[in-house]
Predict the 3D structure of the following.
Amino acid sequence: MKKLIVILMAFMAPITLANVWNKIDGVYAVTSSSVINQAEHLPNNSHYRFTLKGNSAKDLYQAMSVTPTIDDCTGATVKNIQQMQCLFFNSEEHYECHFSINIARQKIEYGVPC
C-alpha cells in the first residue's frame, strides 16, 4: 500500500506543479457601468474592475495569443482580446492589464477608458 501511495504521488507531482497559484498584484474597484459619465439611474455596483500589475499582468499578457500592436492612448505595446487589454511599457519594462466583470451578466468588459 505504501508503494502504491509513493507511486501515485510521483505521478501526481508534475500535475500539481504545472498549476502554480500566485498572489495577484494590482487594484480593484466595484463601480457602475461607466467610470466617466456615471448616470444617477444606474447602480453603482454593477462592475468589478481590475488593474493588474507586475508579474500578474506579465503572465496574462504573455498568455494572450494575439499579435501585439501599439496603443493609441499610451504608446505602449498592447494586446487586446475583445474587451480585455494588457499593456507592456517597453521603456519601463512594466506590464498592466485592465478589464472589468459585469457582475450580473458574468461578462468581461472594458476596464479603463483611453
